[in-house]
């Protein structure tokens, strides 16, 4: 994945919060205030989900990020981002807020 693509994605979400990209696991993570709300793998953006937002992603037919480990599929709490975020800043904001809120709730669950 190119750094240019990661920068492009950061730019999409920059109007909503200061976003940074960090190289990890052969892809990139997208972060705000140290919380990962996005995952970029194979030039595909995935957004953080949790029990409160998962159905919104499933209703849109957005697939989970999955990788294979020891021959078994591992599903992470990230689903594909909808295509409309690339052309509609209002939609980008809506989906960013959902993903970032899920990241905040996830952190509270782990630390709280």
Describe the protein's architecture and organization.
The chain is α+β, with helices and mostly antiparallel strands and 112 residues long. It has a single domain (3-111), classed as 2-Layer Sandwich (Yope Regulator, Chain: A), CATH 3.30.1460. The chain is built from 3 helices and 6 strands. The chain has helices at residues 3-13, 54-59, 89-111, and strands at 20-24, 27-32, 35-41, 44-48, 64-69, 72-80. A 6-stranded antiparallel beta sheet has the order 1-2-3-4-6-5. A hairpin with a 2-residue loop joins strand 2 and strand 3. The longest helix has 23 residues, at 89-111. The radius of gyration is 13 Å and the shape is globular. The relative contact order is 0.18. The model has no long low-confidence stretch (mean pLDDT 92).
In the sheet with the most strands, the strands line up as 1-2-3-4-6-5
Could you give a short account of the major beta sheet? 6 strands, antiparallel
Mean pLDDT: 92
CATH homologous superfamily designation: YgaC/TfoX-N like chaperone
Give the secondary structure arrangement, pairings included.
Blueprint: H1 3-13, E1 20-24, E2 27-32, E3 35-41, E4 44-48, H2 54-59, E5 64-69, E6 72-80, H3 89-111
